[in-house]
Structures are given as C-alpha cells and as structure tokens.
Design brief:
Elements (H helix, E strand, L loop, with lengths): L1 H23 L17 H4 L39 H7 L18 H32 L16 H29 L7 E8 L2 E5 L5 E2 L2 E4 L3 E8 L4 E5 L4 E5 L5 E6 L4 E4 L1 E2 L13 E5 L3 H12 L5 H11 L26 E3 L5 E3 L2 H9 L22 H13 L3
Parallel strand pairs: 1-5, 4-11
Antiparallel strand pairs: 1-2, 2-3, 5-8, 6-7, 6-10, 9-11, 12-13
Helix pairs in contact: 1-4, 4-5, 7-9, 8-9
Bound molecules: dinuclear copper ion.
Length: 407
C-alpha cells in the first residue's frame, strides 16, 4: 500500500507545484494593438475621436472609458477603434495560458476537479508503468529456451487475490469520495449569486443580465459567484468555458444551470460544445471577467448604449447580437445566406422562382419577418423568422444598416 501511495503522492506534489508556480508568475497580458480597420466603412473611422488605448483595461479607470465612445460613427469601423470599452475587452486576445496540461483554471471551484484529474492521471501512469514492466520482465524471465522446463501455474493464491482486490477497492473508494464531493459543489450554486440568463440558438448566444442588458459576449464580475440559467431556442447546444471547467448542455423547452466563481480578471474563450449544424464552430463568444466594479459599469454603460442609437449603429449592433453574422457577411461573400453588401440596392433582383423583386426596404422587412416568402437563387430557404423578436426600431435599424452597405 505504502509502495503505491508514495510515488502517487510524489507525482501529485510535482504537478501541483508546477500549478502553483505558474499561477504565481502570471502577469497581465500586454495590451493588444487594435486590429487594422477593414471593410467598406473604413472611411467612417477617420473622423472619430481617438479611442482610449485598448490596454486601459488592466487599469479600468472610469475616466478611460467614456460611455459615448461606443456610439456615433466610430463603431461602424471594423477594428476596435471606437468600440465601447467593454466590447474592446471582449475583442482582446484570449488568455490561453496553460498549466501542466490544462488551460489555467480561473474558477475557484475548478481546483477540486483538476486535483481529481491529476490524481487519476498519476494513478494511471503508475499502474501503466508498473504493469508494463512486470509483463516485459516475466516474458523475458519465463521465455522458452533450451534446457528450461515450464513450471506448473498455481491455480489459486489467496494472499494475491485479496491484495489485488483490497488495494484497488480502497483507491476507488477514495476517488469516489473526492469526486462526489467535487461534483456536488459543481452542481450546487450558492444562494447569493449574480444570475445571468443564457439563450442559445443556431448559431448565436445571448446573455441577458438582471437589468435587461443583453450581449453576445459573456461579461461577469470577478470574485463573485455567477449562476447561469440556460435554455435553447432550437436544438441542443452546450455551454463550455474550459478555464472555468464548466460544461453544461442547453436543452430546448427546459432550463439547465451552471455556475462558477471567476478568480482572475481577463478575457477567455467560450465554446459551443454540442454539434449543432453548419456554424456550430462560430458559436464561440468571449468571456470577460471584469475587475471589481467593472461589471456594474458594464451594466450601466451597456444599458445607456442600447437607447438613442443611430439606426445604422443599432442595425450593426443587432447584426452581431442577434446572430445575423452567423449566416450573412457584409463583405460580399456568401455564407449560409446571401451577403448583406448591397450594390443592387433600389434595383431589380431575380428570385429563385424567376420572378424579380426590387431590393428595397419592403423586401428587407419581408425577409426578416417572413424569410421563407421569397428565396434567392443558390440559397435554400432556411432562415428562422424574427417576427415578434425585434422591436420596430430594431427592424428599422437593420434596414438602415443593410442600406448603408450599398457601396
Ligand atoms: Cu451551438 Cu454547437
């Protein structure tokens, strides 16, 4: 027993020492340079005020992030220039630092599951190496050779059988106990938690906060339990944040829950981990863990932004927020649906049934509310209706945005 536990203990100590060392030396990521401005709206960026440096995020002083920054012509630009400060946080390169073998955990509740992982790994290595060497050694020792007579095999050995039953049983009981304890914690959110509603559909995420603010990236406070109440509009999706060690399916017509306690501010990657169709791989929003106070500012600033937005801005925001960008590009290339770039605005376009339609406000509105009414050649009718899901102002914003893409 001692002989088995000692090397296992040593292996675990080495693994956790590596863990602690890397966690201690973690420096905040350097501020990224804003990506180059691209797209047909590039011109719009030139007359906007110079944005605060993207790197102001590590300090997050309130002065560095004026609310007005998110609105006005600036956010029509393709780069981070002119983006609201919280969207700049989401656009930062993701923190991809790793431990020994796993992405570095950012959830206080992840330590137990990581410990289980390393304990089981250490046990596996130990038994794999031990058994392999025993097999090789015995194969060599008892090989057939001239002058060597095969010895009779013992039919039964009580001591041996008790040993190889009792030792694994003890190990398995330990593994079960620690695994069960960690599992119970993972599935039991504390009563006092920030609650965020998560809605997924093909192919987008929507995170809805207590004050009604919605976003397609997940913003959460640091050092606070966050509870997610999740459901899907259509098929199974799966909420997966590797650094939080949290993965939970989203099921249509049913709520599922997840929670975590983020320990380090930063920008992390989230995924959809259940194959859900063509653009499954695009369902990967950012997770922004805010510095203390940042989450509250995010809620206020984001709430302020969603009102009084110019229609084109609103349309552009909805293009991303409502997941239009999963199927439609704005650069002229085709995806699941036709591009929104509109050189033909105001002209006649041909439908797949041969009829022609004027590409105008009426056609766009109909396409949003009754997408199956008319189909463009080469694009099978597959878009869900947005009837009842958009306010009138939002429909007008989308029309304005599409119209603005005519050059
Ligand atoms: Cu949603 Cu995969």
């Amino acid at each position: 027993m001692k002989r088995i536990l000692l090397p296992m203990f040593v292996a675990l100590c080495v693994a956790s020492a590596a863990h602690a060392q890397q966690a201690g030396s973690a420096a905040p990521a350097a501020p990224p340079a804003p990506p180059p401005v691209t797209g047909q709206n590039a011109g719009a960026a030139s007359d906007t005020p110079k944005p605060s440096p993207a790197g102001s995020t590590s300090a997050q002083s309130p002065g560095a992030a004026p609310t007005a920054q998110g609105s006005a012509a600036g956010s029509a630009a393709g780069g981070t220039a002119g983006m609201a400060w919280y969207d700049q946080l989401a656009a930062r390169p993701k923190d991809t630092s790793t431990n020994f073998w796993l992405p570095k955990a950012v959830n206080a509740e992840a330590d137990d599951s990581d410990m289980m992982f390393y304990a089981i790994l250490a046990l596996n290595i130990l038994f794999f190496v031990g058994i392999t060497f025993a097999v090789i050694y015995f194969t060599w020792k008892y090989r057939a050779r001239p002058g060597h007579k095969a010895e009779p095999s013992p039919a039964h050995n009580d001591a041996l059988e008790i040993t190889w039953t009792v030792i694994p049983t003890i190990i398995v009981v330990f593994l079960f106990y620690f695994g069960w304890r960690a599992y119970i914690r993972v599935v039991t959110p504390p009563n006092k938690a920030v609650e965020i509603n998560v809605l997924a559909w093909r192919w987008a995420w929507e995170f809805k906060h207590a004050n009604g603010v919605t976003d397609n990236n997940l913003h959460v406070p640091v050092n606070t339990p966050v509870r997610l109440v999740m459901t899907s509009k259509d098929v199974l999706h799966s909420f997966y944040i590797p650094v939080m060690r949290v993965k939970q399916d989203l099921v249509p017509r049913r709520y599922t829950y997840a929670w975590f306690f983020a320990t380090k501010p930063g920008t992390y990657q989230m995924y959809c981990a259940e194959y859900c169709g063509t653009n499954h791989s695009q369902m990967k929003p950012a997770v922004v863990v805010h510095e203390p106070g940042g989450y509250e500012r995010y809620l206020n600033d984001k709430a302020a932004e969603s009102t009084n937005m110019p229609p084109v801005e609103l349309g552009k925001m909805l293009y991303e927020k409502k997941g239009c960008n999963a199927c439609h590009t704005v650069d002229g290339t085709a995806r699941v649906g036709p591009t929104w770039k509109q050189p033909d605005w105001g002209k006649q376009i041909t439908m797949s049934d041969g009829k022609t339609v004027t590409m105008d406000e009426n056609y766009v509105r109909e396409s949003i509310l009754s997408p199956l009414a008319k189909a463009r050649p080469g694009f099978p009718p597959s878009m869900p209706s947005f009837e009842g899901q958009l306010k009138e102002k939002e429909i007008q914003g989308l029309i304005a945005y599409i119209k603005s893409l005519k050059q």
